[in-house]
Amino acid sequence: MMSTYTDIKTLQFILFEVLGFKEVLELDRYADHDKESALMLINSVKDLSDKELYPFFREMDEAPAHYRDGEIIVHPQVKEYIAKSGELGLIAAPFGYEEGGMQLPQVLVSAVAWIQECANNHLPNYSGLTQAAANLIDHFGNDHLKNTYFPRMLTGEWTGTMCLTEPQAGSSLSDIVSTATPSGDHYLIKGQKIFISGGDFKGSENIVHLLLARIEGAPAGTRGISLFVVPKYRPEEGGDATFNDVNVIGDYQKMGQRGYCTTHLSFGDQNDCRGWLVGEPHQGLKYMFMMMNEARIAVGRGAAGIAMAASKASLQYAKERPQGRPVEDGGNKDVQKEQTLIINHPDVKRMLQYQKAISEGSLYLVLLSSKYYDLSMYHSDPEERQKYSSLLGLLTPITKTYPAEKGMTSVSNGLQVFGGYGYCQDFILQQYFRDIRIYSIYEGTTGIQSLDLLGRKITMKNGEAACALYGQINATLARAEKHAELEPYAQQLKGALDLNTEITTYLTGFAKEGNYRRFLADATVFMEFFGTLVMGWLWLDMAVSSSEKMNSTESSFSEDFYKSKVNTMKFFFKYEMTALPGLAETLKNGDMTTMENDLNVLF
Amino acid sequence: MMSTYTDIKTLQFILFEVLGFKEVLELDRYADHDKESALMLINSVKDLSDKELYPFFREMDEAPAHYRDGEIIVHPQVKEYIAKSGELGLIAAPFGYEEGGMQLPQVLVSAVAWIQECANNHLPNYSGLTQAAANLIDHFGNDHLKNTYFPRMLTGEWTGTMCLTEPQAGSSLSDIVSTATPSGDHYLIKGQKIFISGGDFKGSENIVHLLLARIEGAPAGTRGISLFVVPKYRPEEGGDATFNDVNVIGDYQKMGQRGYCTTHLSFGDQNDCRGWLVGEPHQGLKYMFMMMNEARIAVGRGAAGIAMAASKASLQYAKERPQGRPVEDGGNKDVQKEQTLIINHPDVKRMLQYQKAISEGSLYLVLLSSKYYDLSMYHSDPEERQKYSSLLGLLTPITKTYPAEKGMTSVSNGLQVFGGYGYCQDFILQQYFRDIRIYSIYEGTTGIQSLDLLGRKITMKNGEAACALYGQINATLARAEKHAELEPYAQQLKGALDLNTEITTYLTGFAKEGNYRRFLADATVFMEFFGTLVMGWLWLDMAVSSSEKMNSTESSFSEDFYKSKVNTMKFFFKYEMTALPGLAETLKNGDMTTMENDLNVLF
Predict the structure, then answer these.
(1) Is residue A522 within 8 Å of A566, Cβ to Cβ?
(2) Using CB atoms and an 8 Å cut-off, which of residues 209-248 of chain A contact chain B?
(3) Which residues cross the membrane (chains A, B) (predicted)?
(4) Cβ B347–A447 below 8 Å, yes or no?
(5) If DSSP codes are grouped into helix, strand and coil, which group holds residue A219?
């Protein structure tokens, strides 16, 4: 039963037959990679996931990370796994050869991270966050920081974190009050950070915190925030290390993802916590956004992985569980007949199809964002880099949000397939249900992502990003129209695009008038609208590739495989795309209910 | 902080100013009751809830019911609470005076059960199930059964259960295989029952199981199921009691509602389990449906209670938590300003309004079903009784489903208001989130309810029930049209009614052709459509009553109170009713995706 948590075939289909992986391989940076090396990597990570991740998934929930006597106790597999992923070069994978990495395309880094997250969404976070922290030091740190921290993070000996949130500053980072006081080559750091994932755990050799703080006299708001490297133990010349006054004072017991510790840290209780400035003073949030954007894609990826794992578990159950009989013509049931498997009931099929649509579509969304990242970083043409950077910027809040929000519904459908068993601890669905709920909170809530999407990404550079996206979508439409079976769906998507143009023009009109309250009031509804539209495009795109391959001699999969993708596209257009006009209606509605200032009086 | 889990004002508003409580009081059976006695009861149950329910809510989750050495250990408050609710006459409340009850209208029984379920959704189930089991014995049991069990169930000395599910027979009750062999005045029972709520617990004096089993030679399917009273201890003449070979062999550890035990029972391991037939042989499912229908309303009520409690908790948090600043005209934020309370952010307002709409609307739905029950049972005019019976039948699957399904989303919104804190065990939202998930599974899943709604209730007697419902809705529309402010919403609801007529005619057309597979394939989507429509009606109805009262000298509440109801109606029409045309589009779509027989091959 080891193979029931993921879908390697669909991963390969998206990578090699849908996504345009070739465009990535054609970049100079990735010249050494090809499909075969990618397949080898996928297989070895699947093997790692079978052995080191999936078997520990349930017990990490049952014996969660917890605070005891000044330490965070985690499952012993945490240390094992981090070491293994370091050994296999997975943490170093995206970095350049000269830095000890594999120079692996981000799209492949994402692909193999996703496999691991399907298997166990707790463990890969430890090394993923370390990779992202190392990337930040690599890009913006000076040689001292790079030499001191970077190599040992890539091996997994030391792990990394991002320290942003404070008790009064969660969604509102401008209110950070942790301080940094200049003192020779470093700063003295003082302050508390809460909700710090992987912030400390017993047995870790060192933890490298990337921390936001304010240098004395800095301007108010986000323009006065600087970024520091703050290790738990500061390396001294000669190889010794001194405790750096980074104290763990508690943890958060979460409803789910209980194997991944969430900590409360206090810096500088003894006034001996040293931090080293990354880059220029007061530019910290700009740097941190590199890590945050990476983390946002990773959040969407994790949610996509959980949705997939839940989908596979409920599909397996539906194929094995007999219950009831199908309704026959005339409305009767023949009780003399044997019970049917529940996969034969239309409502169970609906729930399974929904999960398939959300989990596979979300995977494509995540991989597409990663491909855009590769092209935005390494394309030889600066204009192309700019285009893909815009596309990545536009898709980032959607990639963070769609798999998290719809993934919850998807996993809930998976639980429902199990009936009462799904609600019981003997079955895994309840764990997926609890785990996935954090993803719409992590790294900027859905509300924050929606403000980013509508308030920044849609409007930036006069709509350049949306324009580039339309270009991509139109390319899919042109291919779709060659297939009679797909043509009606292409028309439906065109209609949705027109509706989007209408809505966007209507809403941005308020911004042009300076009426930002009205412009952004229903940003979350816009996110649902736009996210659904993007997902409709991705499904049509998968259906197009499937239709092309079905009639080709070059296909790698069975006709049934391709047919199931076309079917799922049809499902998505029937059950999800139909919501768009209603959402548009809501967005156009001028009723001020969610903006009334006196709502708190009325409640 | 004791008052943050419920909303007594809104309860009173619905009961006394919206629902037409007077019509219930006018029934002969309820001649002794009036508004004042109802208010006294509400106050005393609120007091009970403050003292005996809410304080134990969290600890019942943290130290859940569990199986140990052949017994189920529950929180000590279970026994305390059942005794208290017996003492106060709450279990006996709906029964006639001659039976030791208060002859209380069901609408009031529901109202005070809801208060308790807001406070603690675990405890009231024990006595609620006892009440429903007693009611079944009262209606269909012979004098021997009535005299032996009924009185001690009303005092709470003995509790009751319903034993339906078996390992192979959950949604499919026709597959029940527990057997009953005639033996003198009783039957010998043999079989296993799973997922039995309140099935056994240490310290219970006796537990009276209402159990479905097959008498030898009975016809196959649901027409061969009989109903038995099977006590854990069988009373002997002279007052002694003998163990009746009812064995608890395990329990189910659930994700939520962990204070309410769910057990696995084995009957007749020693061939000494006696059961007494209720009513006629092979008629058991018909009798049991009385209890199931009652339980379905109770499930919706419980979900409505959790949604309300979560709504109140997140509202309180939103009024106390500062974070960020509102977007100003021009799109900027002034970071020099103090942070605002999060209730002032539009997206938080949206989430709070959503919760208000769902939780208050669900309460009205539950109370309305209960009112229909009262009128269907005790109206002097048989035609009226028939009308209300149809209305009750139609609303039952919706009352079971809407609060459960939308309540989940509502509670999830409440959790999101808390941000990361909502996901942590220090805060209560995560418990509500876990607890409410069971309600769409209990007593027939959402899929089963949807088949009941579309396949039976909509079509029965040539659409008589839907026709009666239209009559009720039209009465609201006529009143709404007198208020200029409400007129556009009345028009919108009319449009939705027309759409419903179109959809229903379209779908039932397939039934008339004998094509039941097509007719019922998207029953769950129809449930969402019809449930939303009904909720839109209920909100318009509340807005009408509010508008009438606002300009009246007889109003009991402040203008702000009434204004908030009108506002919430507008919210519901803007954000929820707009989904109807899209759902209709899905229902009209002839794509066969959810019916393909080979879907399991394709997956």
Answers:
(1) no
(2) 220-222
(3) none
(4) yes
(5) coil
B362 part of contact set with chain A, CB < 8 Å: no
- Would A2-154 and A159-282 be classified into the same CATH topology? no
How far apart are the C-alpha atoms of A174 and B200, rounded to whole Å?
A: 55
Percent of chain A with pLDDT over 70: 98
Task: Give the per-residue SS3 of B26-39.
Answer: CCHHHCCCCHHHHH
Task: Give tens-digit pLDDT for B485-528.
Answer: 999 999 999 999 999 999 999 999 999 999 999 999 999 999 99
Element (DSSP H or E) covering residue B393: helix B382-417
Within a 10 A sphere around the Cβ of A286, how many other Cβ atoms? Answer: 15
> For residue range B463-491, what is the model confidence (pLDDT) as tens digits?
999 999 999 999 999 999 999 999 999 99
B603 touches chain A (CB under 8 A): yes
The tens digit of pLDDT for each residue in B309-367 reads 999 999 999 999 999 998 887 788 888 889 999 999 999 999 999 999 999 999 999 99
Test B602 with A315 for CB contact under 8 angstroms: no
pLDDT of residue A452: 97
SS3 B231: strand
- Residues present in chain B in total: 603
Q: How far is B368 from chain A (nearest CA, A)?
A: 23
At A327 the pLDDT is 82
A100 CA: distance to closest CA in chain B (Å): 36
CATH number of B159-283: 2.40.110.20
Question: Quick one: which of B594, B475, B586, B598 has its CA closest to B532?
Answer: B586
Overall average pLDDT of the A489-517 stretch: 97
Q: Are A527 and A453 in contact (CB under 8 A)?
A: yes
For residue A551, what pLDDT is reported?
Answer: 82
Residue B347 to residue A593, Cβ atoms within 8 A: no
Q: What is the CATH number of domain A2-154?
A: 1.10.540.10
What does the pLDDT read at residue A3? 57
- Mean pLDDT of chain B, nearest integer: 96
SS3 assignment, position B258? coil
- pTM, whole model, 2 decimals? 0.98
Distance from B386 to chain A by nearest Cα, in Å? Answer: 25
Per domain, the residue ranges of chain B are 2-154, 159-283, 446-595
B581 vs A583: CB contact, 8 Å cut-off?
no
Q: Which CATH number fits domain A159-282: 2.60.120.10, 2.40.110.20, 3.40.50.300, 3.40.50.2300?
A: 2.40.110.20
Helices (H), B271-345: 284-320
What is the distance between the alpha carbons of residues A423 and B177, in angstroms, rounded to a whole number? 24
What integer best gives the mean pLDDT of chain A? 96
